[in-house]
Amino acid sequence: MGFIFFPLFINSYILGSELKYNPIKYKDVKYNAKFRNNVKNLETAKFIWGRKKINKNYNLIQDKLTLKNNYSTNVEINSLNRSIIFDNKKIGPDVSWLVPPGFKWSSRYKFDLSARGHNRRAKGEPFLGWNGGDAVGQFYYQPINHKNYSFGLNMGMRSIYSGSASGGSTSVGEGLSLGFRADKRLSDRAGVAFGAEQLIHFDGLTDTGRDLYLTFSKGWWSNNENGKFPLNTATFGFATGKMAEGNVKGLCSNLFGGSGTEVSHQRELCWAPVFTLSRVYNQKLSNFFEYNSKWFLLGTSLAPFQEIPLRGTFAVQLSDHIENYRLNNFDDLKWVFRVSLGF
């Protein structure tokens, strides 16, 4: 299982080269004769292009980058699907796999395309094999965006592949559904969201869950110094559908047509507690621990490009509700993934 932490210990080449900013101050610097003005504490910048030096004891975990600048005293934490956005501008990695964060949606990105899935592994099958796994597509559009709140819609697609390979027996586009998201900014580092994914099923072929949710998220910067990494986040709330398949749930009813987790059998729509804890080491890398009622997950997420909002997430299923959340041994481990692109 140690490979999931591999991004934390590889050497500095994974982040490539970077510009380092070293301010140099000069006192009583004079302009040329045309202006004849004295300038106090003129600050100039010396840029050095080179590979980042990383403490061998921390590697990628130790990143001294700070997002705080001369133009902003506070760095606001926003979201894009399951990802972190800094100050509505800078893309960050995911902080969860299934549980939606409560931070207000970014005003910069209105669209996000996402595919998430998991492998199905029986004992004796290779860990990294697809093993008859399954994946679904999700499309988000958040057109209404105010300083303190936002609102949008999302569409789910049960089948995103058709073919002879495993999982290709259904037609592309099968299992269409519609949902919504409304969120509110509570502070620069906190927010609350209420929404649903796969709420309205159009063709009766959706088994990806009628996932209503109410979540609250909060972030803490390192040493309480605004904009200084690492950033810790926590999300807690209640949810239904695929986020309520576990053993701890209540308030069950047939509201909206049930849980939507099966095609041939209608189960009750129940509510269950969910949470995620994450550590964002820098603008590119994060780890998270998620409880989504069905599974406990330990994951890593990477946002490799600052100008392209592409994120990839890989997580290991540590325990399953079927075994009453007993910690899995290696033969029972399975994995999940998510790939997202915003614009």
What does the radius of gyration come to?
A: 23 Å
The DSSP helix count reads 1
CATH class of the largest domain: Mainly Beta
Instruction: Count up the domains.
Output: 2
Give the overall silhouette: globular
The ordered string of helix (H) and strand (E) elements is HEEEEEEEEEEEEEEEEEEEE
Low-pLDDT segments: 1-64
Description:
This protein is mostly beta strands and 343 residues long. The protein folds into two domains: 2-10 and 62-342, Porin (Beta Barrel); 17-51, no CATH class. It is built from one helix and 20 strands. The strands form four sheets. The chain has a twelve-stranded antiparallel barrel with strand order 8-9-10-11-12-13-14-16-17-18-19-20.
Question: Key terms for this structure?
Answer:
20 strands, 343 residues, single chain, 1% helix, disordered N terminus, 1 helix, 12-stranded antiparallel barrel, mainly beta, Porin, 2 domains
